[in-house]
Amino acid sequence: MTPSDRSLLSASATKIVTAVRDGDVTAAAVTAAFLDRIGSLNETLNAFLHVDRDGAMAAAERLDEKRKRGGRLGPLAGLPVAVKDALCTIDQPTTCGSKMLAGYRPPYDADTVRRLRDADAVIVGKTNMDEFAMGGSNENSAFGPVKNPWDISRAPGGSSGGSAACVAADLAPVAIGSDTGGSIRQPAGLCGITGLKPTYGRVSRRGLVAFASSLDQIGPMARSAADCGLVLESIAGHDPGDATSLRDAVPPYTQLLEQPLTGIRIGRVAAHFAEGLDPEVAKGVEEAFAVFQAAGATVHDIDLPHAKYGVATYYLVAPCAASGNLARYDGNHYGHRSSATPEGGFDSPLVGL
Question: What is the DSSP string of 271-307?
Answer without folding.
Answer: GGGTSS--HHHHHHHHHHHHHHHHTT-EEEEE--TTG
